[in-house]
Amino acid sequence: MAVGETFPPRPPRPGDPFATLGEHAQAGPTPPRVPRKKGRTFFLVLLFTGAALALASLILFFTGRSLLVGFYRDYTVQRSIPEALAADVQLDDARHLIHTLDTFFARADRRELPDPLVLDMIQRIDAVLSDRVITRAEVVELETLAGQAALLTTGTGSDTVSGGR
């Protein structure tokens, strides 16, 4: 052979896996297309939504108490109660109530108060704020309830403190 000439391609051997590549590839029937399973996207969305809900539930389980106490300390005591005080409540009494409730919820946040007492206080504050006016008698009642908590020693959260429950 002369310089620059190339050899003619040889035919593929039987069983050669690379026989379909290149010039000798035979155009045979294309394999049937496998249809994509329906519902796969729905399953993935359902899986990720379930995982997100489980994660949110765990977060609320472990931090729910501190979130609730923090909300009442930061928003209800500092904003809602001063706005709802009646005109007959003196400024010193209002400041004392805010300071007493702030101290109460600070202790509750540190888990020094039992859960039933904290829930009683939250329910009482909700009842007092239901008519959006806090009278002088309700101020004294809230101060008394918070003052009783100041007399308690450190609780575990499972003690029953309120009367008869």
Written account of the structure:
This protein is mostly helical. The protein has a domain at 63-150. The protein has helices at 40-84, 91-109, 115-129, 136-150. Mean pLDDT is 82; it is low at 154-165.
Helix and strand topology:
Blueprint: H1 40-84, H2 91-109, H3 115-129, H4 136-150
Helix pairs in contact: 1-2, 2-4, 3-4
Features:
165 residues; mainly alpha; 57% helix
Task: Please give a quick description of this structure.
By secondary structure, this protein is mainly alpha-helical. It has helices spanning 40-84, 91-109, 115-129, 136-150.
Fraction in beta strands: under 5%
Class computed from helices, strands and strand pairing: mainly alpha
Q: Please bin the fraction of helical residues.
A: 55-70%
Overall mean pLDDT stands at: 82
Run of helices and strands = HHHH
What gross morphology would you assign?
Answer: rod-shaped
Give the helix tally. Answer: 4
Low-confidence stretches: 154-165
- The total count of strands amounts to 0
